[in-house]
């Protein structure tokens, strides 16, 4: 039957008779113990879809048919764990005769069948990613959304992992059911495939949104969002005896899915509050781990992998956890900052309009959502940074800057999260410049929660530290800008930072941090501008007159002397940033003239030109005053 049939009075038949017979023959092979046979059977189903899609066959009906099989399989397996029986034909979007034909082949359905069908559906989704038109993807998501809505996915997994018939002497639920060890493996495989499938569905929904070019959010995103608390409980319940490697994998997949969801849809107040609570419940160790005490590696790509099957010795040393910590901290800050920007209808009115509550406020006091979320961030920072610094202004500022650098270094080896975190920090309101510009004293601001938060995440300070971490290498920035993975986010970050720099020029020029703080910097790339035959000509050609490049990552004895025109070391931060950004401007212009830049950089070039104008004015001001 063609998927374009105009017969709307009856339910679709989910494919022609030949397709149904093929599926009936293949489904039982998914239940056997041989992984090879399971794998081949699943691959045949994927090839069947590929053939139908390429030959303009009934691929629509075939996807629907697989969804019906998945619902029937879950019904069968769930009924073996629960006394609750589901009506086999209830909510199924096909004719009853199709259900009657399929049911005999699913009488022996087990967890392997459910896992196999999920894997097939996910592999089909991968094939859909290769198609340019979005309609098949939307149709696929519609069918899967219906399947998610009509079957007890979470109850199935939860009860399969926690059969109440299997308790030890203390009443603690066990994973093993007293049968062969294959049951444990089957359950964990099911949970792993299910997590992968949910992540792929979220990814596909995001691709569809970009292709359609609107704020379209498929209902499946909200369906998956509602499942997050139960899925987390299934994966990370503290009573379960999963190995550290499995726990780490489950954490990674859950965090990745939640981060992607948070970027696709605007979560409402209750979801954001729930997610913050879930992070505290299941990820508290990763969230509270001291950032400034972490050992930085030159290349942490392998050590940070959540898939690393660590030995007990490596686990004892904490290897492989930086990646999870990056994800947890980012999601925690994103939820908290989103709450700061949200407005709940039943919120009590803010006591003041400037969002500057005292540190003496207790979490159980009633105040607006913005204050609650701000206090949440501050409490986390307070655990990360010792409070004894409040008595001394120099120590206070140094510790804040040290922590800012530490959190930046945490993300330097993961480019996609790096720019997400940098952009997230730009969302915070700022009051830190009031102290830097002398508008308020340290004693006046030390009890200001917003000051502590905004000082650590001050965008201009972080921008300076970010450039220093790159050794002021404009080529690294250029690589970020032309990368298909980071180009958009890096371009947005530079545009927004340059606007802030131009609006707060004095703060940018006067930025200073004790160089002992940056002496342990973990650079993204070795500085490209070492002393050489062309280094002086490169710098002087910018028209700025600066002939000094100070790297924060070499010993003091190796550093060039500061340019005497600045008279103090803090001018070096401005000078180095100036050289880096103006060289970046020249490189972008050269690539654009050769039609080699991957997109239109006009907006960025305008901001860089404005930056260059302010640099010239700064030099004229210095000359006129000396």
From TrEMBL:
Domain of life: Eukaryota
Transmembrane feature ranges: none
Ranges where the Protein Lines N-terminal domain occurs: 389-510
Alphabetical list of InterPro entries matching this protein: Lines_C, LINES_N, Protein_Lines
Domain (Protein Lines C-terminal) ranges: 578-613
Record's protein name: Protein Lines, N-terminal
